[in-house]
Amino acid sequence: MAYLRLIRYKNLLIIALFQILLRYWLILPILERHSIAPALSHLQFALVVLATLMLAAAGNVINDYFDIRIDTINRPDKVIIGRAIERRSALMLHVILTLTGVFVGLYIAFAFRKESYALLFIGVPFLLWYYSTYFKRQMLSGNIIVALLTALVAYLVVSVEFAALEMQTGRQIIETEACSRAWFYTTGFAAFAFISTLLREIIKDMEDTRGDREAGCRTMPIEIGATNCKIIVTLLTAFMLIVLWTSFGMFSWLQRVPYAAPYFALMLTMPSIYVAYATFKAQDARQFHHASSVCKLMMLFGILFILLLGSSI
């Protein structure tokens, strides 16, 4: 159980769910509507998910490895490395997960003749390493990196699908309406993932201020103060909701999605407002942790909207 907590298996399950829903409830229905047979096999897609999960798990392990001092201050009861798991064992697990993710990713790159995938799957572990050792301790840069990688989880699904189709049918598939719609819808979910993840990362920094300050970090709450961070969270939340409801008003196809309006109101808008309110009122780590947990739940609701959207395609 300690190893499952170390790799943050709940977060990994959400990543897998995100990618599975995007493919089977969004991209494949779009292809079916345009009478295009998918080129990516179930096994190949499973390898894409596997590579994503292995690299994400490796990032979680190395993050905890370098955060032992900070976590001992912020959440001493939840420290795993050095207690339930030896430091050397954790580092070995990181190496195994990273190599597995990279080699599976290189196979995907070779299978679809995409050198950019090879660079991606090799570059991400280096980025996660430097995030854990440097960027995480800097103001905003670490938050943005995590948010971008979360958005990349969505883009990888549509990119690999159309890379397979391009190999099978030729370059013209990129010019089709099916391709543009798939990328457009995926961009919407990637944007939501980016903003909601950025929100949660800022809230987590406020939760972890005590340990971060002791470790000499320069996170946003330390550099500009918790009050200014709360204002930023409120503004980001307002921006996200404005974009959400503006999109609903602009796109008639979105209005035709079954139960879209009540879903936006109950499952996205109300939790978002509550996150902003709870963050603004929070005074200690426990209260910030509560706001962060609700934000994570809101992110899950955003992912589950794929089920409603897919049913209307």
Notable features of this structure?
single chain; globular; 313 residues; 14 helices; mainly alpha
List the helices and strands and how they pair.
Elements: H1 2-6, H2 9-33, H3 42-66, H4 68-74, H5 87-111, H6 115-133, H7 141-169, H8 177-207, H9 209-214, H10 220-224, H11 226-250, H12 252-255, H13 260-281, H14 285-311
Strand count, sense and barrel status of the largest sheet are:
none
The SSE string, one letter per element, is HHHHHHHHHHHHHH
* Helix proportion range: over 70%
In percent terms, what proportion of residues is strand? under 5%
Shape: globular
Helical stretch tally: 14
Q: Tell me the Rg in angstroms.
A: 20 Å
DSSP, total strands: 0
Low-confidence stretches: none
Q: Averaging pLDDT over every residue, what do you get?
A: 96
Helix-strand category: mainly alpha
Query: Number of domains in the coordinates?
Result: 1
N- to C-terminal distance? 41 Å
